[in-house]
Each structure stands twice: as C-alpha cells, then as structure tokens.
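Sample 3 of the quickstart, ligand 6-O-phosphono-beta-D-glucopyranose:
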Amino acid sequence: MEHYSIIIFGGTGDLSRRKLIPALIALADKDPHKHFHVLGIGRKPFDDQQFRKFLLPGAEKHPRVDLHYMAADIEKEDSLLHLKDRMAEIEPGLPAGRIFYLATAYGYFGKIAENIERCCNVRDPFFTRIVAEKPFGSGRESFKKLNAELRARFREEQIFRADHYLAKGTVDNILRTRFSNPLFERVWNSSSIERITVAVHEALGVGSRIAYYDQTGAIKDMVQNHLLQALALVLMRVPEKKDETAFRKAKTEAIRNLRFRGTIRTGQYRGYQDEVRDLNPGSRTETFAELQLHSRDRRWRGTDILLRTGKMLKKREAYIEIMFKKEPCSAYCEFDLPPNKLILHIQPLQNVELTINSTLPGEKVKLTPVKMIYCPTCEFKANTPEGYEIILDECIRGNKRLFMSEEELSAAWRLTDSITAVAEHQMPEIYEAGTDA
Ligand code: BG6
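Result:
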C-alpha cells in the first residue's frame, strides 16, 4: 500500500469540499494501492467528525481516504505550531509522499510555506510537494514577490502551480490534435487562419465567492490563467525536444509574444451590485471581459486573437474557435461561402467540429456550410476524469506538464498588467443575466 498525506490549507473552502476531496476519493477508487491521509486546515472550529459531516455526502465513508481536521487561523502568529504533532497523529508511518495543497488566498502562501518548512519539508526518503492554486498574485510585481517566498523555502521541482484548465480533456489534447494531423498543422499559421477565439462562458454568478471575486474580476480570475493557457497551446511552436522543459519553454515563448491591442469591453451582470452591497458598494469589478490580442511571432502576424469570458451569461460553454481565411473566389464565385471553421469544444461537450462547404442531398448547384463532428462522449462512453483528479494524480507522479512554470506566469502577468491598466479606467457596462452580454 502507498500512503500519501494530503494537507489542504483552505480545507473548508469551496474548492476543497467540491473538487479536491471528491478527486481524492475518485483516485482512491481507481487505484486500490493508494491510501490518502487527508488533513483539512481551516478557520472553522471543527473537529474531525464535524469536518467529515461538512463535506459532500458519502465523502466520509471511503476506506482508503481518512479525513482529519485542524482548526487554524493562519493570520494569527503561531497558529500552525501544532502542525507537526497533528501530522504525526494522522500518518501511520512514513508516507510515500506529502502534498501540501494551498487552496487559500495567495496572500497566505508565504506564511504557510514558512510553516511547512519548519514542520515538515523533508527531502528523502519521500517527497514533499506544494500545489499552489491560481491566481498567483494580483499583478506581475506581486507574483514575483509571492514566487520568491515559495522559492525561498522549496526547490522549483517541489512547486506545482496549478491551472485546472490544463487538465481538461480538450485543452490537454490541443497539441496532439495539432501535431499529429498534418491537415491542421500545415495550415496552422496566419496565411490560413483569420481569427482565433478562446471563450469561456459561465451561466452561474459569483455566489459565495464574492469576497475573493470582487478583489479579482474576470481578467485576473480567468483571462490571466485559463484563457491564456489554452491560447498558448494553440499558438506555441513545436518544442525543440520532447521533454517538459522544452515544452514549457515553447509555451512561455508563445505567451511572451502576445500583445494587447489596447481595447477591451468589460461588463458587470445586473444583480452583482446587490451581492456586493455589504462588501464594496458601487464596485466596478468586471464579471465579463472581451479583448483582442495579437502575436509578434512571424507565424501569427495578421491573425486576430479574441478572448471572451463572463459570468451569468446565456449558457455554460467553453471553446476554442479557429476561423480560417475565406477562399478567394476561384471556382464558385457566385456563392458567398463562409470560411472553414474548426471548433474545439472544452465544455460541456468535448466535440471537435469542422465546418466545410458542401452540397446537400438533392441539391445540385447550391453550396451550404455543413459540420463534421467528432463527439468523444457519444462514440466512447468513457467517464472522463475531472480536472482536479488529474492534477492530483500528476502531482503524485511528479509530472509537471500540466503545471505552470515561473517564466510562463511572469509573462502572463506582464500581459495581464497591460490589460488591467486599460480596464481600470473604464466603467463596466451592465448586462442582463442570462444574455450574451
Ligand atoms: C476558477 C475561477 O478558476 O474557474 C472561477 O476562479 C470559475 O471563477 C472556474 O468559475 C471555472 O472553472 P470550470 O471548470 O467550472 O469551467
């Protein structure tokens, strides 16, 4: 049996309750050799029993996921002094590894890192790894400070900077789709591609995360990380070598080459002001953002890049759309044919959709755009694992492919700073909930 200790800071938060603990249960279900000893750390004055009750129904029952709790207010000095003793209580012996999951506001990362080092940053014979959740800071300067705090205590190979969009099936598949299909890769440049759109639309509002969200907004919550990461995979060149370092270098380069075109549309859904009334009346935080970028890479010169994200929109859907250039009139000049389009759906479906022009049955002359659709969930009834299950699994294995490097994040923040510098000076337009904004 392999025993792992998973210590979750922010143990009573939404992420821990809805995503991390269910992901650990799913991992334990899949691998009968894994036993997880979980310690949730949070401000709520729970004991182990109350913590288990607080989790989703059924979570407390798994024979190989033991759930424990430690109440600690990280803001208070010495609040984590007992961590070492508590770890000794929950670990049956030497674990195969310890994962410290930082699911708190980034402002606490430094303090937590200091305490982990004091209590349990052991190198051999097992691993100690830190997973840090986005957003890493609120701008490039704060990212650098925060990163330095982590790097002062841990080696780079111990730090896993998570972005759960990288673990989504479609996003993880972008490079395979591109590089294994000459049909796409040969035309994957600005001579053939007019526009690239990355869109993440959400149907829900901010809900219980208002305190976090109001400080963050759509640009830092979504564009800086999820949207830019997906975009980087679309734009990056073939890595020089087939290893993680070369892969992340190519991805970083793609982000470094991006520039903001200078105009952005921001919005706030009607009703947001009621949610934020007690916290920050009159808040100007954007819950929607739509902006254009361009790349300085010669391969992409002339291709428009559009990013779009928002909450409380008409429906939940995320996709990457590659719009090809229109065919200059050659044979069928009498028709105004739409361009070919490739859509990689991220969610709720993971379809790959290619729009081409063809004649419909019975039609002899007319051309009509039709869709060729590959629907993985229809063809293979596979139960695709959730993002956080993959993130935890990859961290246990020590694979960094799905995690972000410091250089990548620094480049992403540099770009984001240029976007927020403009957005800050404008008032978000109010849009009706349940519309396209
Ligand atoms: C999180 C953001 O990173 O991603 C949330 O903080 C957002 O605001 C969420 O709702 C979206 O993730 P998913 O997997 O539901 O699309």
